[in-house]
Amino acid sequence: MEVDKSNIQVYLFNSDRPFHHYASGQLTVKKGTHYESDDRIAAYELLVCSGGKCQLITNQQVHQLKRGSCLVVEPQTSIQVISESPQVDLYWFQFLPKDDRELVDFQDVQTATHSRQQLSRLVNNVIIPEEYQVREFNRINTACLQALLLIKGNYYTDALPSYVVTELMLQITNDFIASLNHLTRTNPRAVEIIDWLSDHLDEKLTVRKLADHFGMNYRYVSRLIKKETGVTASNLIIQKKIEIACNLLLHSNLPLKVIADRAYFNDEKYFLRIFKKRVGQTPTQYRQQYMSDFLLNDTKTREGKK
């Protein structure tokens, strides 16, 4: 995560009481159009870019967003989105915390993660920077889709949508806190290897090939990665492939064979077996649990303007 530590602010929202879900949906803006809202609602808004690049302007302040970017917008804020790619896609979640929010400096949060006494003050909070680049975006992207699908359901109470939004923001909090640990890792070589693995994932990538690329022994590479992530290199490779598959299952109606290929599994039968083992459901069961026409034709979208 790249941040300007000199001026970034981090939101603390008490998560002991779930936030009230106000509204949510997806926004698509194509090049040549823009989106503009002067509604100035009395709710906070979480925006997550799922594809493309854009300028997002809030009260004259320009933010550059790309896939994986998150932005928290204060209540009563005007929003304008200008696409800088053929198309930009955003998830949006409007919410009302039950308690007052607190703003702290990024450096204070980073320092607190290394002090048990200071960290105790932050627990039971959603901790999210005003602007943040998610590290494990496949996971957060899936969480956003799952949240929108669950929110779309018909419930006798608004409690479930409120819990869903709170849980999503806690998942982003976990990603953020993990990124702070990433910044303070003592072994920069491990960071380099893990980042390269994420960027070069394909059906041919193995632990041996990963080790060969860095001129290292594959057993040493696996131990190094396990020390940093808690899982072996081979399990990390599978984990990232599964995350891609989950996203495709939720975000498309592609057949399982195509999803297996796009998630870099050489064999469809192996994909089906390992998915069931890791997720606890078959790919079809996973898709049926969450899939609806909403994913292909969202009825809660904001429209771009010419």
Automatic annotation (TrEMBL):
UniProt-recorded Gene Ontology molecular function terms: DNA-binding transcription factor activity; sequence-specific DNA binding
One Pfam family it belongs to: HTH_18
Segments forming domain HTH araC/xylS-type: 191-289
Keywords per UniProt: DNA-binding, Transcription, Transcription regulation
Entry superkingdom: Bacteria
Entries under InterPro entries matching the protein: Homeodomain-like_sf (IPR009057), HTH-like (IPR037923), HTH_AraC (IPR018060)
Record's protein name: HTH araC/xylS-type domain-containing protein
